Automatic annotation (TrEMBL):
It is a multi-pass membrane protein. InterPro entries: MMPL_dom (IPR004869), Mycobact_MmpL (IPR050545). Residues 190-309 form the Membrane transport protein MMPL domain. SUPFAM superfamilies: Multidrug efflux transporter AcrB transmembrane domain. Coiled coil: none annotated. Pfam families: MMPL. The keyword Protein biosynthesis does not apply. The lineage of its organism: Bacteria, Pseudomonadati, Pseudomonadota, Betaproteobacteria, Neisseriales. This is Membrane transport protein MMPL domain-containing protein. The chain crosses the membrane at residues 247-265, 270-289, 295-315, 336-356. Keywords: Cell membrane, Membrane, Transmembrane, Transmembrane helix. The keyword Membrane applies. GO terms for cellular component: plasma membrane. It comes from the Bacteria.
Length: 376
């Protein structure tokens, strides 16, 4: 190998190591659509910080609803789901029960005193105390009446009306198991909350969606229903889908390109063209990560359009070998090299003009394209 070949091999090795290290660190693939806006159209730093804080809080929580027509079955299934998600190692905590400080709650209710009474009960106590205490005695003697505060601590009965002053809602607290639930259309829904750690794992998206799919499959087998919502789920699904679509587009482009080349050259040696193609893509991605710290998913998608152009130069070099039996590689390269350099310069100049646009994705495309063309 010549010195230039060794330098090129070292450059590829360095680019592969650099890109691999960046991927291992995480956060190198950008999927935020607001990152596509020009710098002068970006949101104010204070608003962005507030938006990121709110988004982080929302994306850090996943709400789960476990439902069944049998209430006992719903509570038991919810406990199983909570244990499974907690043991997955993905979450900082999975909240399934709410255990309020009843002693403090009762103390605060006692402090309310007569203020806890509705207006009509206040008027009744003021103008007809006998009727009020008659009603109080009947409620105290009723074994099925709910007693928030014990009788000896609330003999006047003021605490009975605290719940009436609470805002009406469907969400209820089960005093026996401490779970939050609601009822709708004959189905008891138990509410769970899964909280992700502040620093998400690099494989969070890869593990979160399979966990949800497995939980839904177990719910179907167990005869109950499972619903889930949360920003982390939407983010993981969007990331997985974008990576899948990008890979699909690249695979289709490569397949069609090499199918055409195989039909023309009729030799499996044509697949050696994957080497300059892979080298170009590697250097393009490494250059973008090195220049911008990350690469947007749209840059990767746009970069797939370079597949045909990256194999264009080696095709011009190798095509004469099909028609000329005395074709020599070095001599052929010397003949086409001036045209290659001129074509590379013109094409790279066109892509470099994108670097002067205000859109970050176009600037990334400029760096990616120039590095990929030069590397190929």
């Amino acid at each position: 190998m010549t010195r230039l070949a060794w330098l090129y091999a070292l450059l590829l090795a360095f680019a592969a190591a650099w890109l691999g290290w960046g991927i291992a660190q995480g956060g190198r693939l950008q999927t935020d659509l607001t990152a596509l806006l020009p710098a002068d159209a970006q949101v104010d730093a204070v608003w962005r910080a507030a938006d990121e804080a709110g988004e982080k809080q929302l994306n850090g929580q996943i709400l789960l609803l476990v439902g069944s027509e049998d209430a006992d079955r719903a509570f038991a299934a919810a406990e199983q789901v909570a244990d499974r998600w907690q043991n997955s190692g993905l979450f900082a905590a999975v909240d399934s029960r709410l255990n309020p400080d009843l002693a403090q709650l009762r103390q605060e209710i006692r402090r309310l005193g007569v203020n806890a009474l509705p207006r009509e009960q206040q008027q009744l106590l003021l103008h007809d105390p006998a009727a009020y205490f008659q009603q109080r005695a009947e409620d105290a003697a009723n074994p099925f009446a709910a007693q928030i505060v014990p009788l000896e601590d609330d003999w006047l009965g003021f605490a009975r009306f605290v719940q009436q002053k609470q805002p009406s809602g469907r969400l209820q607290w089960h005093s026996s198991n401490g779970m939050m639930y609601s009822e709708q259309d004959g189905i008891t829904w138990v509410w769970l909350r899964a909280r992700l750690p502040e620093k998400a794992a690099t494989d969070q998206a890869e593990r979160l969606l399979p966990l949800l799919a497995d939980s839904r499959a177990q719910a179907e087998r167990g005869g109950y229903r499972l619903l889930a919502a949360g920003g982390a789920l939407f983010t993981a699904e969007a990331k997985t889908q974008s990576e899948r679509e990008s890979g699909l587009m690249s695979a289709i482009g490569l397949s069609l390109t090499f199918a055409l080349l195989l039909a023309v050259f009729r030799s499996p040696r044509v697949f050696a063209l994957v080497l300059p193609l892979g080298a170009g893509m590697l250097l393009g991605a490494a250059a973008v990560v090195g220049a911008f710290g990350q690469i947007h998913i749209l840059t990767v998608v746009i970069g797939t359009s370079l597949v045909g152009m990256l194999v264009d130069f080696p095709l011009h070099w190798l095509t004469p070998s099909v028609f000329s039996p005395d074709w020599a590689a070095k001599e052929a390269m010397r003949r086409v090299l001036p045209a290659f350099l001129a074509g590379l310069g013109i094409t790279a100049t066109g892509y470099l003009l994108l670097a002067f646009t205000p859109l970050p994705v176009l600037r990334q495309t400029a760096v990616f394209s120039v590095a990929a063309l030069g590397g190929a």
